[in-house]
Fold this protein.
Amino acid sequence: MAIRLDGHRTNAVQSSQEAIDVNPTPPRTTKSERIELRATPDEATRIALAAQLQHLSISAFVLQAAAAEADRVTARSEFTLMPADQFDELMASLDQPQEIPALARAAARRRAKER
């Protein structure tokens, strides 16, 4: 761990000339929103233990876990996941459209002029 001149902590690799920032900590933003929750004694104990094992406050641990889960849920809602073979079948079906006789007849009919 190294401390940069601007005061941010960073993981750094020491070269013969200077320290190179590998993973700089982003500047802190003001946290203005409050989220409250209730937990059973067992849940609270498990969360507190996990936070302690990660060297985090309970608040930081819960926020980190909830934000990660929110990102996962949001990402799943934005993308459709399917097996590769199913995707290949879908793409092939788009390249070779299915013949639909009723649709072909409707497209072939003459249209009356609109007034």
In short: The radius of gyration is 28 Å. The longest strand covers residues 9-14.
